Amino acid sequence: MSKQRVTRRQFLNYTLTGVGGFMAAGMLMPMVRFAVDPVLQHNAAGDYVVTDKKISEITAEPVRVDFTFEQKDAWYTSEVTNTAWVYKDENGEVIALSPICKHLGCTVDWNKDKANPEHFYCPCHGGLYTKDGTNVPGTPPAAPLDVYPFKEVDGYLALGKAEPRKEA
Ligand code: FES
């Protein structure tokens, strides 16, 4: 029966490898954690933001509703204010439109162009949209305004993330 002897060289090799590995793991773990941390966090995207607009106060006339929320971009949290143009259609349905022009991203305004009353107007290149957000042919925008999904929270309007309008 032979006893295997560990030479001094092997002992040093094992010890240094073990200690080196332990130290490397100690340095790498925080880096890995730092890199994947945002992935592990709960993603609030898609959540609704409650505005200060009461649903009962919304009329057929589009009004501007600003709403602020915290946005997380990886490790950076910032406060963002978005805007919606909100009104009730002829069926009493709430319509919430994004103000971002579909041409080059300027901000549209309601009823600001004297030549085209009752339209959303983009001052940058004269873009026009009808009240329901449909782009007027012959003006620069090539698509309708995005639409916010919404729900009612304790009587107040809550808005989700604006998305392109689904064609009927
Ligand atoms: S950005 Fe609105 S018309 Fe060009």
From TrEMBL:
PROSITE patterns: RIESKE, TAT. CDD domains: Rieske (cd03467). Keywords: 2Fe-2S, Disulfide bond, Electron transport, Iron, Iron-sulfur, Membrane, Metal-binding, Oxidoreductase, Transmembrane, Transmembrane helix, Transport. One of its GO terms (molecular function) is metal ion binding. It comes from the Bacteria. Pfam families: Rieske. Residues 86-159 form the Rieske domain. The keyword Cell membrane does not apply. Component of the menaquinol:cytochrome c reductase complex. The Rieske protein is a high potential 2Fe-2S protein. Belongs to the Rieske iron-sulfur protein family. PANTHER family: CYTOCHROME B-C1 COMPLEX SUBUNIT RIESKE, MITOCHONDRIAL. The main subunits of the menaquinol:cytochrome c complex are a Rieske-type iron-sulfur protein (QcrA), a cytochrome b (QcrB) and a cytochrome c (QcrC). This is Menaquinol:cytochrome c reductase iron-sulfur subunit.
